[in-house]
Model the fold of this input.
Amino acid sequence: MSTSIAKKLLVHTYMLLFTMPIIGMIIWYFLAATFNGTTGQFTLQNFNFVKEPIEYAGVVLPAIWPIVLNTLVYSVLIVVIEIGIAVPAAYAFSRLDFKGKLAAMKFLFLMRSFPGITLIIATFFILVQMNLVNTYLGVILVAITGSLPGRVYIMKGFFDEVPWDLEWAAMVDGCSRFRALMKVLVPYVLPGIGAISVFSFLGAYGEWFLFKLFIFDDNMLTLAGYLSRLVTKENVILNYGLITAIGLFYTIPLVVFYIFTQKIFLKINMGGAKQV
Done:
């Protein structure tokens, strides 16, 4: 057996060993959602939540489609806010010289080093004082505070890759700095904007922890928060068929979204690598 064939066999065996548990989990996922162990038949009864509100543990759950709308609105807002702040902030760190620039960059790194869980108690008390508990604004402020430093750092790397000559030429031709940013630099860093947009959307779509802590109205939940409420109900016999059905409803759009955006993730290697 040649060395190349042995290497290919080893790689495929390695991949098979790691994918078998995942394949098994996916098969169990579909069976739990569609197979009735009592009757021995396949059924779509667990997917009735798509048509009407259902009862779980003695409580009527909110209709799923307003929850879907909450998820989309929240995710899009997070993307817009983070892009709107990260792009100009990254441009300033990359292109401008100002007092405290190095200290500000170090502060960004410091913010990224804190595990969010260590700040939860202080964050909750701050939101209580500001009357932002059980509001979307409170959740959004906490979410972007945790993720924004990373977005700025990534975008700074993309701006660092753009040659200075392009911006200087635009300004010599009469462009203001803002117009040079919008007309010249932004088209060059669109892959970076796309990359952090995808990261922001996926992070917001999967956010459940902040909704569990700060949102008490079930009608305000997103899909991830909605699903987490089902799993974490106390003193309740879990309906695994219903939970996995809702889990499939939650996961399938995410998988489709990732399939169409996975190439954008590869572009992230361009960003965030250069120093101040």
Observations:
- Residues 3-34 form the longest helix (32 residues).
- The two ends are 52 Å apart (CA to CA).
- Residues 103 and 109 are 10 Å apart (CA to CA).
- Confidence is low (pLDDT under 50) at residues 269-276.
